[in-house]
Specification:
This protein is mainly alpha-helical and 359 residues long. The chain is 76% helix and 0% strand.
């Protein structure tokens, strides 16, 4: 199932391949039409993604796949089609009894509704999510759910509601994440002094986090917000603190995850050289994949020439590994990067290879 979902995710992750949206969440027109789609699915990647999504029996996974497809459509500028897909996702989500899953899905739907230019619809989705979080979950889950709701409220531009909700989050882990995003939003509005005050509060909350892995995640979030607020020195100090904690981690798997998080944090902050230096102590297989992720971050940021150089490093590492070129995960990574830099023809070839490997 993981590989099946992986191929769906790659199919819908880039809007450039979503050119023909006619297949979206509409009743089949005829047997001949369905047969044609089945015979030539690669002519309409979004249509294929939708067909694959409809095969998913689990409601949560099905709704998530539809939301991802809608996100790609919104990014491609096809907002009306994205809303139609989101309505399908809402229908599926409405059948889910688990309050936690429903809240997360409603938040994801609201986020894409904002991307599609419909904040009023997003506000309704968020309103439903808050109601469910406060009425149908236990106290332990509320903080987690509010931690997911707050970023969507911030994205919608309602900082006062976000501030009110943050006050209701008792857990330092979730509160730091919310406060860091709140600070970034303040910085984007030009409220630098307020952002710095929020970040100072963030660092105080971080001190109360006991578990190392949680503290590292929090520090990375704060560092990104510090960079957004223009506090390069503060970010450098925060990242240094993170690295010191990582080096103290003895479990190899945990250390791998922490180093990846650190590298991607640095890459998102534009510190690519430092990001690549961080992962030098990781085995080649994982280093190849993470290097590819860094390249994709560069491409998304518009640095496509530099991204290509980084991605060639990832490919060189991957090709040293036996049979890696036929692995679905690697082919999907190649496809996602090629799509980022605009090489759709080669991306389709990689997608087909990923699809075959996933069988």
């Amino acid at each position: 199932m993981k590989k099946f979902i992986l191929v769906i995710a790659i199919l819908i992750m880039v809007p450039g391949l979503a050119g023909n949206q006619d297949a979206l969440a509409q009743p089949p027109q005829s047997r001949s039409t369905n047969a044609k789609v089945a015979e030539s699915p690669w002519e309409t990647p979004t249509g294929l993604a939708l067909l694959m999504a409809q095969r998913i029996e689990d409601a949560k996974r099905k709704a998530s796949a539809l939301i991802d497809i809608a996100s790609a459509q919104a990014e491609a500028g096809d907002h009306q089609q994205a809303l139609t897909t989101l309505n399908s996702a809402l229908n599926v989500a409405g059948k889910i009894e688990d309050a936690n899953n429903k809240v997360f899905l409603l938040c994801n739907i609201a986020s894409v509704q904002i991307d599609a230019g419909h904040k009023e619809l997003a506000q309704e989705s968020v309103k439903r999510a808050v109601k469910i979080a406060l009425e149908r979950t236990n106290s332990k889950n509320i903080e987690m759910l509010l931690g997911r709701i707050v970023p969507v409220v911030i994205k919608a531009g309602d900082l006062q509601q976000a501030k009110d909700l943050i006050q209701q989050i008792p857990s330092p882990n979730h509160k730091v994440n919310a406060l860091a995003q709140f600070a970034s939003a303040q910085a984007k509005l030009g409220e630098t002094e307020k952002a710095m005050a929020t970040l100072k509060n963030c660092l105080e909350v971080v001190k109360t986090i006991e578990k190392t892995s949680h503290k590292l995640i929090a520090l990375n979030q704060v560092a990104l917000a510090q960079i957004a607020a223009g506090d390069e020195n503060g970010a450098a100090a925060t990242l240094k603190q993170s690295m010191e904690l990582i080096q103290q981690t003895e479990d190899a798997n945990k250390k791998l995850v922490l180093l990846r998080d650190m590298a991607l944090t640095l890459a998102e902050a534009g510190k690519v050289k430092q990001a690549l230096d961080v992962i030098q102590q990781i085995d080649e297989g994982n280093r190849a994949f993470i290097t590819g992720e860094i390249a994709s971050i560069q491409a998304k940021a518009g640095s496509k020439k530099q991204a290509l150089v980084t991605f060639m490093q990832a490919l060189e590492l991957a090709r040293r590994l036996e049979k890696s070129s036929n692995d679905a995960s690697l082919q999907s990574l190649i496809a996602s990067f090629l799509l980022e830099v605009g090489d759709k023809d080669q991306a389709l070839i990689a997608l087909k290879q990923a699809f075959e490997s996933a069988k």
